[in-house]
């Protein structure tokens, strides 16, 4: 199918019909195929039980779903369903694994000492976020308030996005090697880690971002199974990482798009990330910490080398000093109330076709 | 009762008898009173449903429990029960609200630029932690591994404690004013936020601590209801905080003890904290972020002005440069395998008596 939601994709989501209970479905074209009639783990109304069951069950479920889809089932138009958060989030972790993004941010925010922090190429830097405020695409984003500096409280003036790719853990574990990545990670979502840059600048030393990012994190309503995606070789890393981060594991040639209202402003290339998702998971669990079903870890802002490939407006507008012109002629530095941001993505499927990752969108409200 | 677990206390916990299901109980003396026979929210085997029901139900439950206890129910000896995590943790947040601790850490780790960060007295600094690895007192603490510096991976050499007080959210909400604190917070636990200082020093810039603290956070098995505790006036704050952090709300005169093996090494005074728990909750939700039933937020390391009042071994041993001598004559800089740490606490009850907060302990294993 030309829209990227054919039988080579079949991403999972949770939907309701009017006044109905939650059901598991897969997206097909512009509609949803109800899976609840297939029974077992597909009839629970939640993706988490299937995700907890492990890779063998994931493969079996995908085969059963593919056979069902091939049999020509009813397809419920998207306009007739409400989409929900596709899984219940356990812990939410966010990384910082684009070298281009880290260098851009450093140059913009710390011009006196630009460059990567000393450990950046030795480990994938990350931090924990707030799982309570992970919301599904389409949820309005209320402009956060907070301290903008000493003695000043109000709505953020520097509301930004971070275009990211999220990885959803199915099988629990700890000390997960990079080679075990596909045994533990169920699939992929798109993530927008909304950020208030003025709150962040004031609050972040020495314990990192807190309220600047805890008000909302949006995810796409479809979890694309890892099995649907083609892999590509990971990029070269210098210095060579420590043993627990080797081999790097698969990379993915996901191509993101960022639309600000009706204007395509950026096309971040996920293949340009420095650290792979397998390395991120290995690092996250390398101290003995456990991951659970429903854990979401995001890649960090995806920025490529080009100015039109950045994953944040901080970078796009050089911290607001170089506004961008949208299709309607208006200028933007950061987000205004009423603005809509939609992050989309496409991928090469395991079958060699181009498939869609869907999109994650949100409109800013006062 | 002389041990601090009389009818003026009645903290809640979750226990099992041999091969039994989970039950809610309250501690009385050296035993547990089973509450499952009282029905309703007390018969669910989990504290979360009661916590979610709101303050009116909390008061009614406490009255019912007190009446039951007064009727002379069977008391199951502690040795016959297994204690579990007393509530299911939603999001875990940790603050940094002791001025003495922040100044000590700064002087020890950043001697070239000691002092508080610029925003420290304007807002309670905090960060998100890992809720998956919150464990109940008594759980063995496996020494974490990680990067100790560039190119070096191994067991931490600087395993430390952080003696803290945790606040458990019952009623969900957002933008919670300091005056609404007692409507949302159900009770208090003791917290040990185990920390690997070498991992932390290498990883923490610019996004804060991550693996240095995500391997384990221990909590005491008893949640002392807020209703059991006497309040004291909060300390003076200069500069005056912004409006959303005023009034400061209640403070609590909790007195902690830190035992390293059999040696009492410190007595951190919670009353010396700069920011109150009501201000922490107000700040946490001031951007619009929601809290949920089961959210745990910890005070940050409790350190008083005296060298024998610090809540971490980093401070006690000046980052290992001034080892302490334990009762058996041995010296310690940081934790060794086999070491046991027990953090205890007492409080003044609402009835004017002295009550116990129980204790949180853990033994280090390789």
User: How would you state the average pLDDT of chain A, rounded?
Assistant: 97
Shape of chain A: globular
Distance between the termini of chain A: 39 Å
Strand content of chain A: 25-35%
Q: Please tally the β strands of chain A and state the result.
A: 26
Put simply, the count of helices of chain A is 7
What do you see in this structure?
- Chains A, B: Mg(2+) binds at residues 193, 213, 217.
- Chains A, B: Substrate binds at residues 96, 110, 200, 204, 301.
- Chains A, B: GO terms for molecular function: fumarylacetoacetase activity; metal ion binding.
- Chains A, B: InterPro entries: Fumarylacetoacetase, Fumarylacetoacetase-like_C, Fumarylacetoacetase_C_sf, Fumarylacetoacetase_N, Fumarylacetoacetase_N_sf.
- Chains A, B: Its EC number is 3.7.1.2.
- The structure is a homodimer of 366-residue chains.
- Chain A has helices at 48-52, 55-70, 99-109, 181-184, 197-203, 277-284, 313-316, and strands at 12-16, 23-28, 31-34, 76-77, 82-84, 92-95, 126-128, 134-136, 141-142, 145-149, 152-155, 159-160, 163-169, 173-174, 185-192, 195-196, 217-219, 224-225, 255-260, 263-266, 290-291, 296-298, 324-325, 331-332, 340-348, 354-365.
- Chain A is an alpha+beta fold and 366 residues long.
- Chain A is built from seven helices and 26 strands.
- In chain A, strand 1 (12-16) and strand 2 form a beta hairpin.
- In chain A, strands 6, 7, 8, 13, 15, 17, 18 and 22 form an eight-stranded mixed sheet that branches.
- Chain A folds into two domains: 12-84, no CATH class; 92-365, Fumarylacetoacetase-like, C-terminal domain (Fumarylacetoacetate hydrolase, domain 2), CATH 3.90.850.10.
- At the A-B interface, strand 7, strand 10, helix 5 and strand 21 of A face strand 7, strand 10, helix 5 and strand 21 of B.
């Amino acid at each position: 199918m030309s829209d990227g939601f054919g039988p080579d994709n079949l991403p999972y989501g949770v939907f309701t019909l009017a006044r109905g209970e939650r059901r598991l479905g897969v997206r097909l074209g512009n509609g949803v195929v109800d899976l609840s009639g297939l029974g077992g783990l597909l009839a629970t109304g939640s993706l988490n039980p299937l995700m907890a069951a492990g890779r063998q069950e994931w493969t079996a479920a995908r085969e059963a779903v593919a056979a069902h889809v091939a049999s020509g089932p009813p397809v419920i138009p998207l306009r007739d369903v409400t989409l929900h958060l596709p899984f219940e989030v356990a812990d939410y972790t966010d990384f910082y694994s684009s070298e281009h993004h880290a260098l851009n941010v450093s140059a913009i925010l710390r011009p006196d000492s630009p460059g990567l922090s000393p450990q950046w190429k030795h480990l994938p830097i990350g931090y924990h976020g707030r799982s309570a405020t992970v919301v599904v695409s389409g949820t309005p984003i209320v402009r956060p308030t907070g301290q903008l500096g000493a003695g000043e409280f109000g709505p953020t003036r520097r509301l930004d996005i971070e275009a990211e790719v999220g990885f959803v853990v199915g099988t629990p574990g700890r000390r997960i090697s990079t080679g075990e990545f596909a045994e533990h990670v169920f699939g992929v979502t798109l993530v927008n880690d909304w950020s208030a840059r003025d709150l962040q600048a004031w609050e972040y030393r020495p314990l990192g971002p807190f309220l600047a990012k805890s008000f909302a994190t949006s995810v796409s309503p479809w979890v694309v199974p890892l099995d649907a995606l083609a892999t590509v070789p990971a990029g070269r890393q210098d210095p060579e990482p420590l043993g627990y981060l080797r081999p790097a594991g698969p990379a993915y040639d996901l191509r993101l798009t960022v639309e600000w209202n009706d204007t395509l402003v950026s096309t971040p290339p996920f293949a340009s990330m420095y650290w792979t998702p397998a390395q991120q998971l290995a690092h996250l669990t390398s101290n003995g910490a456990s991951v659970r079903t429903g854990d979401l870890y995001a890649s960090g802002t995806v920025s490529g080398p080009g100015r039109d490939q950045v994953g944040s407006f901080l970078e796009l507008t050089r911290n607001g000093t170089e506004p961008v012109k949208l299709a309607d002629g208006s200028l933007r530095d950061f987000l205004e109330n009423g603005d809509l941001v939609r992050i989309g993505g496409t991928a090469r499927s395991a079958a060699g076709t181009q498939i869609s990752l869907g999109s994650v969108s949100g409109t800013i409200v006062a």
